[in-house]
Amino acid sequence: MRTIQTLSFIILLSLIMSGCGTAVEPTPTQLAESMKGYELYSWQDGNLWEFSLLVGTNREKSLDEIKSPDSVLLGMDALTSTLRRVPPGQYVTWLSGETLSFPPGNIIKQVEDICKDQGLILNIAK
Length: 126
What we know:
Layout: H1 2-18, E1 38-45, E2 48-55, H2 63-66, E3 72-74, H3 75-83, E4 91-95, H4 105-118, E5 121-124
Parallel strand pairs: 1-4, 4-5
Antiparallel strand pairs: 1-2, 2-3
């Protein structure tokens, strides 16, 4: 009886300890290749620059699509991590439009550098 209790305790302790390991961050999945590349949009909300990176199409995107909560990237960190998921060799066209604008030169330079490092072809349509 004592052997069964000891064995049960060891199994229970092992199960508890196995759940105490360090968490592993999942690797973000790479975005799909797009025949039309990707479209990048930017605008300023207060002091924060917001971005949207959408799959390229033959049609003009509506402001609702661009600023959809599912699409908005808040700040440079979010944009950087998303651009790192775009497959190398893809075109990224940075567009402007109604209520959209380009950020200051230092942010544009950061985006250019990230795209270059990732092997992306950035076109800025100013």
